[in-house]
Write a structure and sequence with these properties.
heterodimer; A: 177 residues; mainly alpha; 64% helix; elongated; B: 296 residues
Chain lengths: 177, 296
């Protein structure tokens, strides 16, 4: 287990404990402070919970190595940078693989105009998370498990968000002519 | 675009039909969405996490796709899912592995000793794997001593063709097609014909991204053919659900692939997770995680 923030305060520097001593802040304390934000950023970068978890771990492992060279005010942006660089590597590998695995002839770019149907899903009475779920389902035609994977939500949450949004849209539709 | 081309959610409920019909994506998504980069890439583009050439492609697409513009706008406003307590704990365990729970490398046993010990632990912990090698597995080079610059500490063994408990249901195919196709695709794998196995598994993995098995075996095939980077790309795409039958297998082979692809830090994180869990890989993962330094 990690020692508490105050457990490595003074005494002769012990190389094995430098990770917890640098700048007077323990890795544990830094983790507690920044983990949620780093994970959210990682989710944005790779769009998958399991990979976001990996990237978050790797960022803090990297921090552990560099703790004596980093000021607290460089955080969390330093951690974000580690995550971003790893994410770029990830997407680079994905693209190579995608081109290699499923090279499809690109279609003609089409200019299109938003329809009333799209506007329907963009009700301002809903939160962004609802609108994301609605768009993925009714525009992109995704099933609930697919939406869950793409958003990092679980299927129960997706179902709940969709249900709430649908109820609200139905009420709006009834009121509209 | 014909309405028939439109993608329909496979689990659409009767009471959703009306809304589904009213939203007409043929006017919103060029090519019925086939060229859309998907929510993951849209978000990554916003975070600056895409390689330049991919980011340029996404930008170009956004210019001509109202649907993706709308989705990108919503994604930018949404703060994203929260870190669960379980994930918190797993990450804490991973980063705590070298920090507090284990002896410092400086005070610990020498690297040479540790490597040998890890190899021994691996052999002792998974006798089943050794048996598997006889049915056509590519023999892997044994771990070497510390004098070799970067020896792979993780041994590569051929994953046997496994059936999850509960049988076919846990393939998670959602349609029944995979259940029939997977055994056919795995036949050349079992027989040691890796090229044919790759040819059959690749389209299966592409068509069933939700099912771990095709991607897992395709990743193992890449590894057995010595294509570590390809294996990383394939295995990273395999879903790893908490507690799922395939998850420890995927994590182990992804660790092996990352190590061989020169990404030891990525391997270490996975090994710590496996070491803290309970699977047939726990022993070898603990042994391997202990001996390698953390690389930023």
């Amino acid at each position: 287990m990690l020692p508490s923030p105050g457990s490595a305060d003074d005494g002769a520097p012990d190389p094995s404990e430098t990770w917890s001593r640098a700048r007077g802040v323990s890795l544990d304390a830094l983790y507690t402070r920044h983990a949620a934000a780093v994970f959210r950023f990682a989710m944005r970068c790779v769009g998958r919970r399991d990979l976001a978890e990996d990237l978050t771990s790797e960022a803090f492992l990297a921090l552990q190595q560099s703790l004596d060279r980093i000021d607290a005010d460089q955080l969390p942006s330093w951690l974000f940078k580690v995550v971003r660089n790893r994410a770029i590597d990830h997407w680079r590998r994905q693209e190579t693989e995608r081109k290699y695995a499923a090279a499809q002839p690109p279609g003609e770019p089409v200019e299109a105009v938003p329809t009333g149907g799209l506007a329907l899903l963009q009700s301002r009475a809903l939160k962004p998370v609802h609108r994301v779920c609605l768009l993925l389902r009714y525009v992109y035609g995704m099933g609930r498990p697919e939406i869950a994977r793409a958003t990092g939500l679980n299927e129960i949450q997706v179902k709940g968000h969709l249900q709430y949004a649908l109820d609200l849209l139905r009420r709006e539709l009834k009121e509209a002519p | 675009v014909k309405p028939a081309d439109r993608r329909r959610p496979p689990d659409l409920e009767p009471d959703e039909e009306e809304l589904f019909t009213r939203v007409d994506p043929t006017a919103v998504l060029p090519d019925a969405g086939r060229q859309c980069p998907g929510p993951e890439r849209l978000q990554a583009a916003q975070a600056g996490a895409l390689p330049e050439e991919v980011a340029t492609g996404v930008e170009g697409h956004l210019a001509s796709c109202p649907g993706c513009r709308a989705l990108a706008a919503e994604l930018a406003q949404w703060e994203g899912p929260e870190l669960s307590p379980h994930e918190q704990e797993r990450i804490r365990r991973r980063i705590g592995g070298t920090a507090a729970g284990q002896p410092s490398r400086r005070r610990g046993p020498s690297r040479t000793w540790a490597l040998t010990a890890a190899a021994a632990a691996l052999v002792a912990a998974v006798p089943a794997w050794i048996a598997i090698q006889r049915d056509g597995g590519t023999p892997s080079p044994p771990p070497r001593g510390a004098e070799t610059p970067a020896p792979p500490a993780l041994r590569l063994e051929k994953l046997p063709v496994l059936t999850p408990p509960g049988g076919s249901l846990t393939w998670r195919d959602g349609g029944g097609a995979l259940e029939a196709e997977l055994p056919r695709a795995l036949a050349p794998y079992a027989a040691g014909d890796l090229d044919e196995a790759a040819r059959r598994l690749a389209p299966l993995a592409a068509r069933h991204p939700e099912a771990p098995a095709p991607g897992l075996y395709l990743g193992v095939v890449h590894l057995l053919r010595g294509e570590a980077a390809g294996a990383v790309a394939v295995l990273e795409r395999v879903p790893r659900e908490e507690g799922a039958f395939w998850t420890p297998h995927v994590e182990w082979y992804l660790a092996v692939a990352r190590e061989r692809a020169g990404q030891p830090a990525g391997a270490d994180g996975l090994l710590r997770g496996l070491c803290g869990g309970k699977s047939e890989y726990t022993g070898p993962a603990c042994a391997a995680a202990r001996l390698r330094p953390v690389v930023p």
